[in-house]
Amino acid sequence: MPRSTIFFLLILTIIASALGYNYFARPFSNYQAAQIELTELIPEEEENNSESAEETFSDQDLAQLIAFPYSLDDNQSTQSASLSWIKLNQPGLITLFGSKVSTAAAKIATDKISSSFDDESEPLIAVDHEGGSVQRLSGSGFTSLPSWKSICAAGSTQRQDLLSASAQELSRAGVDLVFAPVIDIASQSAILKDRICSSNPETVIARATEFIDIFAQQKIIPVIKHYPGIGSTSRDLHFSFDEVNLKEEEILVFKDILEEYPLIGVMSAHVGVKDRYEDEPCSLNVDCIDDLTGFFPGVIVFTDALDMDSAGYAGEDKELIILAERAVSAIKAGNNVLVFGPNIELGEFDEVIAALKTAYELDEDFQKQAQQSIKKIRQYKEVLKK
Predict the structure, then answer these.
(1) Counting beta carbons within 10 angstroms of the beta carbon of residue 359, is it exposed (0 to 12), middle (13 to 18) or buried (19 or more)?
(2) Which is nearest to 177 in space by CA: 92, 61, 294?
(3) How many CA atoms lie within 13 A of 302 on its CB side?
(4) 65, 206, 263, 272: which has the fewest C-beta neighbours closer than 10 Å?
(5) Distance between CA atoms of residues 259 and 208, nearest Å
(6) Closest Cα partner for 154 from 203, 191, 188?
């Protein structure tokens, strides 16, 4: 592993120490195929007596939980309205969307966004950048990446050159987090198709590890996805809910990668797991998220886009849960960051913040989880924004 990567990851380890975590307090339990029994790896969190349960958070504090979508393809009027919302609410993260946006234009945009924030509140900038059909920034100055499957199959030199160029370009554009790589395991029914690296777990782990190392050299944190594994889903989760038969190898890929990189990001999926988390998306299920964070408390957990129909699933023949309720449930389940697609009205974000504030005032469990998430987000900012 390059020295720059080691140094960066050592800095991130300081975050874990600040949060009072000890990754090696207990050994891992073996994964049972029929039931994911992830026993706690670390001791319980220390009580923080300096934070009172009655501490009042403002809308801006709770907005730290939001990754606000900012589209570089929007017209000037829409972008101005988004910037006004950003300046007023100070969200913790910004997710960039765009298509034929140049590196120069992207950098101008991220600088403009950052200037809308108080000095101590500068956001983390995230982008979906898997390659192929999922590459949000692809204009002049950005390397046009083939699909993740093609990258995985390429020769070592070509693969590393592609990833290195991409990481450097995103870094120059002001990006801090990348929603990649995909570490789902391919199956014959895979809806993800060429977004998946391989059906071979060892190949997936090797390529993902390479991706993480290369992006970490540019001080960009990867967000592996989609926990707990959606390689076998036959439905597009943007439009319908599905339950998967989770195989041992799928969860072991997450385990193996996070054993080496326990402080990266993980994206939770809006999918159920048969015989384990049925009739509810993992992303909104406390047990499903706890099975991840019980082992790896230092990871920063992102939801997949909450406006996907699968995130609002409430049971067969029932109406979808509204967006604001999904957001509250996601934080209470243990996610740290709420991710949204680019087609949400600003008024809906006002409703999300209002719902978060109400839950914070009325629900002690939510309040505790929100405080922990805000603290973690701010500590990641301290490292990435130095």
Answers:
(1) buried
(2) 92
(3) 31
(4) 206
(5) 13
(6) 203
The CATH-assigned architecture of domain 3-9+67-384 is Alpha-Beta Barrel (3.20)
Which pLDDT tens digit goes with each residue over 355-384? 999 999 999 999 999 999 999 999 899 888
- Is 238 marked active-site? yes
Location of structure tokens 């504090």: 61
Cis peptide leading into 129, omega within 30 of 0? no
Measure the CA–CA gap between 276 and 250, rounded to whole angstroms: 15
CB 94 within 8 A of CB 123: yes
The token pair that represents 305 in the structure block: 């886009």
pTM: 0.86
User: Tell me: the pLDDT tens digits for 243-286?
Assistant: 888 889 999 999 999 999 999 999 999 999 988 888 899 999 99
pLDDT of 21 reads 44
Q: What HEC string does the chain produce? A: CCHHHHHHHHHHHHHHHHCCCCCCCCCCCCCECCECCCCCCCCCCCCCCCCCCCCCCCHHHHHCCEEEEEECCCCHHHHHHHHHHHHHHCCCEEEEECCCCCHHHHHHHHHHHHCCCCHHHCCEEEECEEECCEECCCCCCCCCCCCHHHHHHCCHHHHHHHHHHHHHHHHHCCCCEECCCECCCCCCCCCCHHHCCCCCHHHHHHHHHHHHHHHHHCCCEEEEEEECCCCCCCCCCCCCCCEECCCHHHHHHHHHHHHHCCCCEEEECCCEECCCECCCCHHHCHHHHHHHHCCCCCCEEEECCCCCHHHHCCCCCCCCCCHHHHHHHHHHHCCCEEECCCCCCHHHHHHHHHHHHHHHHHCHHHHHHHHHHHHHHHHHHHHHCC
Are the C-beta atoms of 173 and 103 separated by less than 8 Å?
yes
Q: Which residue has the tokens 């129909």?
A: 309
pLDDT digit string, tens, across residues 198-226:
999 999 999 999 999 999 999 999 999 99
**Among residues 238, 290, 309, 363, which one is catalytic?**
238
Catalytic residue among 176, 242, 291, 304: 304
Half-sphere exposure of 261 (CA within 13 A, CB side): 27
What distance in Å separates the CA atoms of residue 235 and residue 384, rounded to the nearest whole number?
Answer: 36
